[in-house]
Design goal:
Layout: E1 2-3, E2 6-18, E3 24-36, E4 38-43, E5 50-55, H1 66-75, E6 83-89, H2 99-114, H3 121-128, H4 135-140, E7 144-147, E8 152-155, E9 164-169, H5 176-181, H6 192-197, H7 209-215, H8 217-228, E10 233-236, E11 243-247, H9 250-259, E12 265-270
Parallel strand pairs: 5-6
Antiparallel strand pairs: 1-4, 2-3, 3-7, 4-6, 7-8, 9-11, 9-12, 10-11
Helix pairs in contact: 1-2, 2-3, 7-8
């Protein structure tokens, strides 16, 4: 079985409060994008589950990869056969694009289908929430308003069809811990969900940007460069360091992407 775990962007991100458990409550809209990894899952040839990673390998031992955490979390519910799992990493890490979370969620969905486990999306979402905050979104993988720590999701009617997207990941990585250390939680005057429903995306912002752009000014300059290239909206995704721009014209988007080819990771496609 071959699957294609995709990335996501955050369209607006408000850090509303710090929780007593050390996490933060947020409000954001998650949008799936077509930048994809490649995941293959087949029954194992022996009694153990193996994960082999190719491409942009994350800097962690295989046993700590979220794909293995997904397998272990699902097998904790009920015994499942061992599997050989092959992952080609294309989505960059440390980018705020949710690549690792997507790999984990697609692993849950793939194992469920391959071994005919019979779990619903709701069942898988509960398992996904124990692996990572973004994992739950990728079970459903459609535009969602995320609240709580990012696991409380509600569907939103957002028309993606007018937009092309350019995503740029410079040679900078921002840890989630580092990003949250620089924010002061506060609610927006107008809730993000209201701005989305009223189609006021120009009023959206990412609360991480103020501190991250101060520490890494090149990211702020990259955001401005996307605007200068014709983007109607630009933002850092999640806690960074990927920055994206939304364009209403395909040729303008492709020209913007071409002008950014000096960066290590550049992606352009229909949103």
């Amino acid at each position: 079985m071959i699957l294609f775990p995709n990335a996501k962007i955050n369209l607006g991100l408000n850090i509303t409060e710090r929780r007593t458990d050390g996490y933060h409550n947020i409000e954001s809209m998650f949008l799936p994008v077509k930048w994809k990894d490649v995941l293959e899952i087949v029954p194992s040839r022996d009694v153990r589950t193996h994960l082999t990673v190719y491409g942009n390998k994350p800097d962690c031992p295989v046993e700590k990869n979220l794909v293995m955490k997904a397998y272990n979390a699902l097998s904790a519910l009920a015994p499942i056969p061992p599997a050989d799992i092959y992952l080609e990493k294309i989505i960059p890490d440390g980018a705020g694009l949710g690549g690792g979370s997507s790999d984990a969620a697609f692993t849950l969905k793939g194992l469920n289908e391959l071994f005919e486990l019979g779990y619903t999306d709701y069942d898988l979402a509960k398992v996904a929430s124990t692996i990572g905050a973004d994992c739950t979104f990728f079970i459903y993988n459609r535009p969602m308003i995320a609240t709580g720590i990012g696991t409380e999701l509600s569907e939103v009617d957002f028309d993606c069809t007018p937009y092309y997207i350019v995503i740029v990941k410079p040679d900078v990585s921002v840890s989630t811990k580092e990003a949250y250390a620089g924010v002061a939680p506060a609610s927006w005057e107008t809730p993000l969900s209201t701005l989305i429903y009223e189609n006021k995306i120009d009023d959206l912002k990412n609360d991480f940007e103020a501190s991250i752009f101060t520490k890494y000014p090149a990211l702020g300059e990259l955001k401005q460069r996307l605007f200068d290239s014709g983007a109607v909206y630009a933002s850092m995704s999640g806690s960074g360091s990927a920055v994206y721009g939304l364009f209403t014209d395909k040729i303008t988007a492709e020209c913007a992407a071409k002008s950014l080819q000096a960066y290590p990771y550049v992606f352009v496609d229909k949103l």
